[in-house]
Amino acid sequence: MKPIKVVTPVLGDPDAPTQILVGLGALAGELAAEGISVRDLFARSGVDPSQLEDAHARISHRQRLTLYRNAKRLAKRSDVGLLAGARQRISDYGIYGYAMVSSRTFGDALLFSLDHITMAGPAVRQISFRIEGGTTAILRSHGLDTLGDLLPFAAEFWRSSMTTLFSRVLEAPFPTKRMVFPFPAPVHWRNYERMFNCPIDFDADRMEWHFDATVLDLPCPN
């Protein structure tokens, strides 16, 4: 089936300040639990840690990737991306999160999130959404080449963050059916299964998130 929606969250200029700092507080919190200061996380990024508290602050795609690279280098645990994503709260996403949680159905919340996904700061160039066979919804990430060796970390943090956010919107576990990743299984691969509660495919030729399409019609409790 053709994609029913395609969004391009990362525009041509990687230095354009288009992204708010939503979700990065959880990354700082996870590193702080390992004894790593927020100033070390923000080192050489051109971003001041105080901007975490500023809802109007904007950073560029390149600055976000610098923060990811710092986190990957500083972390004592290889699964820091998964752990940080699991810390996310609705409030960490500001108006983006509150708009999702106040949507009528989860499908409405998902479409809102895709329409405004630049705010959430994804690391990939393009995201498509489609439904196959009426039963499986698929989010596919495109334009992964610019991430290089940051791809596993970015994928872990983004997928873990969104799984946690979606579960909080629904006030129930998110019904993921399969996760597909275009890189080898990391040393902490079993933690993927625990985090996403589904089969995991590594070394694939694409990056996709498959979930039960019936969740789109579920009302959001709030």
What is the topology?
Elements: E1 5-7, E2 17-19, H1 24-33, H2 38-41, E3 59-60, H3 61-74, H4 80-85, H5 94-101, H6 106-115, H7 117-120, E4 126-132, E5 136-142, H8 151-170, E6 176-180, H9 189-196, E7 200-201, E8 207-212
Parallel strand pairs: 6-7
Antiparallel strand pairs: 1-4, 2-3, 4-5, 5-8, 6-8
Defining traits:
8 strands, 222 residues, 16% strand, 6-stranded mixed beta sheet, two-stranded antiparallel sheet, alpha+beta
Kindly describe this structure.
With 222 residues, the chain is of the alpha+beta class. Helix content is 38%, strand content 16%. It has 9 helices and 8 strands. It has helices at 24-33, 38-41, 61-74, 80-85, 94-101, 106-115, 117-120, 151-170, 189-196, and strands spanning 5-7, 17-19, 59-60, 126-132, 136-142, 176-180, 200-201, 207-212. The strands form 2 sheets. It has a 6-stranded mixed beta sheet with strand order 1-4-5-8-6-7. The chain has a two-stranded antiparallel ribbon with strand order 2-3. Helix 5 packs antiparallel against helix 6. The chain is globular, with a radius of gyration of 16 Å.
